[in-house]
Amino acid sequence: MAEIAACMAGLYRDGFPEALVTGYEPLIEALVLPDPDDRHVLAAAIRCGVQHIVTENLANFPDHALEAFTINADEFLSRIFDLYPAAALATLNVV
Known about the structure:
globular
């Protein structure tokens, strides 16, 4: 399973090099989440200045720890359709 994860990580890195986040490591220790193994995700998000973290894992990314960063996938897609209805529909028609 670790080999598959490493392979997928390599594919993501090669396919989307602009998505690689660096320099987030110093932030990790200061973050408090229910699962400490998820702190790197929040640290990378903070480093990039993201507006949202889209996750179904809301138990490990509670509102009190993230404030306005966390929404679930359904809410995220709903917002995308509200803001960009034509582009969202076009994307669905392409797939």
